[in-house]
Amino acid sequence: MDYVSEEDAREHQLPHYNIEGSPRDKHKNYLRATLPQEYIEAGYSDVGALVDGMVIRTDTVRRNPVIKRLLYNDKVDDSGGLIMTWTAPSGLCFEHTGLYFGRLPEMRAIELWGTVDPNQIALN
Question: Residues 103-121: pLDDT tens digits?
Fold first, then answer.
């Protein structure tokens, strides 16, 4: 399988789904139209995306203590890899990071991925 760069993926896959650029610029109408009624009733009508960290558990590497420490994650109290996802309230996951060592804090993973301002994905 050949490696596809992120730019190539965005160029070929995202226009197919009529998704271009940042969610703030292109998807306000979609996000508003698919916002669940529960969000509106709870006062979250301006939510554009939910950022969530997920830990994928792995075997504990006992031979290499450095790798063992890098994989340890407090969230699951075990070894694992960390991935961050950006999900619209409708359930559409439109962005995710690569897999990081589990020890990396979630906020640092977001910074490394390049999301600078969470307000960029807000609807207002």
Answer: 999 888 888 887 545 555 4
